[in-house]
Amino acid sequence: MPESFHNQTTIVVWVAPIIYIAMCTKMARIERGTLSRLPNIGGILGLQFENIVLKNRLAIFERLHIDPNDVLYDNPFFQRKTLRHAGCQIDYLIQIRQKTLYVCEIKFSKNAVPPTVIPDVQEKIARLSMPRHMSYRPVLIHAGAIAESIAEQEYFASVIDFGELMTPADTKPSDRESRSERTADSIPAEQRHTSAHES
Hints:
The protein is of the alpha/beta class. Helices cover 37% and strands 21% of the residues.
């Protein structure tokens, strides 16, 4: 990666922990009941977390081994329902020049992310209208714990623990890959997904 890309990533990653810690503090207050009566507080914090993830898109690119110069689109995506296509909403969609879509599901919860996240993402991808021969890679970006069966099923091309992403590189173990991350390069070819949808 270019040196300028690395520097930009470092700056964003160091600023975001302040917001991230504040969100975790809010979640702790919810557990103590001080905010539990606020309507839809979980949804509000979830949207805040999605915004933080988008502010750190360069760090996400780096974790997914994506060259920013290859990115054609990277934002939340909403597909309106029409006579030909069903409606769907993708938390974060990344399209690169190599005819690949990264379908990112973003989860923030005080409870462990349940295994039902897999069929939820599968349904979104089934509804998504994609050009023929466009491949896709499902990605899970989460804060907090996830169900063990999620990793066991090996559905996601990459599972990114955002808490680890916020940890400075010099404090991370260097002798082994994080258990919470499985990059697309480590997925056998037969397990990669290819769309048969027409545009």
